[in-house]
Amino acid sequence: MAKPTPSLTVALLQAREAAMGFFRPLLNEHGLTEQQWRVIRILKEVPDHQLESRELAEIACILRPSLTGVLVRLEKTGYVKRWKPANDQRRLCVALTEAGHRLFDTMSGDMHQQYRRIKRQLGADNYKTLMTLLEQLQRVEP
Amino acid sequence: MAKPTPSLTVALLQAREAAMGFFRPLLNEHGLTEQQWRVIRILKEVPDHQLESRELAEIACILRPSLTGVLVRLEKTGYVKRWKPANDQRRLCVALTEAGHRLFDTMSGDMHQQYRRIKRQLGADNYKTLMTLLEQLQRVEP
DNA sequence: TTGAATTCATTAACATCTTAATGTACAAAA
DNA sequence: TTTTGTACATTAAGATGTTAATGAATTCAA
User: Fold this and answer.
1) Which of A17, A40, A90, B54 is surrounded by the most beta carbons within 10 Å?
2) Per-residue pLDDT tens over the stretch A18-51
């Protein structure tokens, strides 16, 4: 009689919700959506703070059609710039602007503080183990 | 100079995306969205296969305004039924229909098979550890 | 070199997310 | 009892998720 097993994907979602509870107020203060912040954050940690939108979509877990709109709005608020590289007009490049860098730096302190609070509640060892396992899970494929 | 730390919330998202890759084809075959399946799945594992929509929203990580629409569509396709309990007309109750139970049972085998494939790639011990840590993370709060 | 595949971004249409605002039903205080 | 407060679901509006379709640029094969 088909019994449900505790769901991995639901557990991941609920855990993420719990974690996002620490950051959402800060994002709201700065008028950013989760996706906009992911884009800024990912661009910040990449060489040249610049990516092709295809790669950005993959890393940020934002589908291409959604990313189109996210980038339009982020450009409108001045945090990123977009352009098509001359050698391949199909592609689209994205980079952080100066304002984007400043925004990240402004929010960075509070972000770190929230991370410390999560680590304190979960335990530093548990936190490290969890990150390792998540990286392994990221690499599974059908 | 504000350096980004590997992001827990992004890691959770990417890991979930990897896991969902195993299930999305199955959901599509049956014309279900992720949220619709979460509702069915959660109702299945609850006593009486029935919940107040408030609790359901919390467990399924679906905000109340979204859940309204999800339930309307799930009722339209016949997998759940909704009603207001006589003693408190503010609340809304939801339960699986017969068709809902049959759908779950039909999909259950394939779902379990995908879980086995994920476990095989991640390792049974790792899988168990991960689930435990996710449950702990779910309980952190700001 | 021409024409058929391929690779991108974007648009379209519908479902869901997110916050704020509404409205109704119940509960508690005056 | 009337008033005030509270707990719900729902609506509203803009942003995003999701799949399929479109269209432009590039690549590859004939």
Assistant:
1) A40
2) 999 999 999 999 999 999 999 999 999 999 999 9
Q: Which of A11, A38, A129 sits opposite B135 (nearest CB)?
A: A11
Q: What is the pLDDT of residues B102-134, one digit of tens each?
A: 999 999 999 999 999 999 999 999 999 999 999
**DSSP string computed for chain B:** --PPPPPHHHHHHHHHHHHHHHHHHHHHHTT--HHHHHHHHHHHTSGGGEEEHHHHHHHHT--HHHHHHHHHHHHHTTSEEEE--TT-TT--EEEE-HHHHHHHHHHHHHHHHHHHHHHHHH-HHHHHHHHHHHHHHHT---
Candidates B129, B134, B136: best to mutate against A (most CBs of A within 10 A) is: B134
- Contact (CB<8Å) A61/B131: no
